Amino acid sequence: MPIEGPVRVLVVDDHVGIRKGIISLIDAERPSMHSVGAAATAEEAIAQTRELQPHVVVLDVNLDGEDGLALIPALQRAAPCQIVVLTSLADPHVAAHARHLGARACLQKTAPATELLASILAACRVCDVPVAAAPTNTGVALSYVNGTNNP
Question: Could you tell me which of 102, 89, 81 has the C-alpha nearest to residue 62?
Answer without folding.
Answer: 89
